[in-house]
Amino acid sequence: MHFSDFDYFLPPELVAQTPAARRDASRLMILDRVEASISETVFSGIAGLFRPGDLLVLNDTRVIPARLLGKKESGGRIEVFLVRRVAGPDETWICLLKSSKKPRPGTVISLPGGMEAVVLDRRDEETWLLAFSPAQGFDGWLEEHGNMPLPPYVRRNAGSEDRSRYQTVFARVSGAVAAPTAGLHFTDELLGELGSLGVAMATLTLHVGLGTFLPVRVDDVLEHRMHREFFSIPGETAAAVAERKKGKGRVIALGTTTTRALEQAAAPDGTVRPGEGEADIFIRPGYRFKVVDALITNFHLPCSTLLLLVSAFAGKDFLFRAYGKAVKRGFRFYSYGDAMFIR
To answer: CATH second-level architecture of 67-145?
Structure first.
């Protein structure tokens, strides 16, 4: 199996550059795997696709304003992209750096608001280790001076609107450097409507990490290694999944991140184990899903691990037929784009 087998043509104008006027005003493509049928509606009508007793599992991760613009001692500009905080008493982060020349260890980077970062070491080909000072009050400083980390295919700088729109309405736990984008379509009112219909909801946390921003560098699927992402599944969420597995309803995953966390934590019999861990599961065609019965997701990049995951769930041929139809129908793609419900 090769990543190039999962390529498709997408006109550039279909890459969504801004969110829809309203979160739930996006279009929704419905893929029925049993009937092999494809239909469409507006996302605000998604409640009609649920049944009483279904369980919707949400990823409550919160995106941090991870993009920082600074200057080196030489005066040259440098962009710092926070990837992951390193456990310990100091404010040390794994970061991506973008500048005309790669910095050396010991380089001091001046950042807005009196913050400085010292380059400690290069970790690998892609990431660096930086220490920030003063460490006290770092989270508050980051909220004030950081920029929302819009994906590279959004060809504009982040604005004030992105502070709220590139964040789900149920975001609670800070740590992601990209949004779980399927959740961007939901409003508080829509979640309330699902609850009134007898749909249960549960949360987990998976901090979307580096893999979202880095391209796949190999073609052979078996050679690819996933970046690890922190996840946490509460006991009540694991119990809610267990109830549905007794035949009382479907487990509907909101997004590929939720899917990865659930399947990572699943025992062979489908029992989801509560607790914390690091997700490195690579779901691709041939994978047998243990937990997830239906999936809400956005449209994904060609040749990406997320596209392979959705292909595994829907079937590659069926999914690519839907993608072809979405292109012809002018659906909006990627983070700020439209969505699909696969059942």
So the answer is: Beta Barrel (2.40)
Closest to 211 measured CA to CA, from 256, 254, 253: 256
In the 8-state DSSP scheme, what is residue 162?
H
| Residues of the chain above pLDDT 70, percent | 99
Residue with tokens 């993009």: 67
Give me the pLDDT at residue 87, please: 81
Average of pLDDT values for 272-298? 97
- Tokens (6 digits) for 154: 């959004």
Phi-psi region of 61 (alpha: psi -120 to 50; beta: other; left: phi over 0): beta
Q: What is the pLDDT of residues 219-277, one digit of tens each?
A: 999 999 898 899 999 999 999 999 998 888 999 999 999 999 999 999 999 999 999 99
Domain with CATH 2.40.10.240 in the chain: 67-145
What is the identity of the amino acid at 188? Answer: D
Fold observed for domain 3-63+163-342: QueA-like (3.40.1780)
CA distance 275 to 206: 12
Q: Say how many C-beta atoms besides its own lie within 10 A of residue 198's C-beta.
A: 12
Pick the closest to residue 211 from 114, 104, 309, 136 (CA basis).
309
Give kind and range of the element (H or E) at residue 321.
helix 316-328
Quote the Cα angle for 93-184-188, to 5°: 115
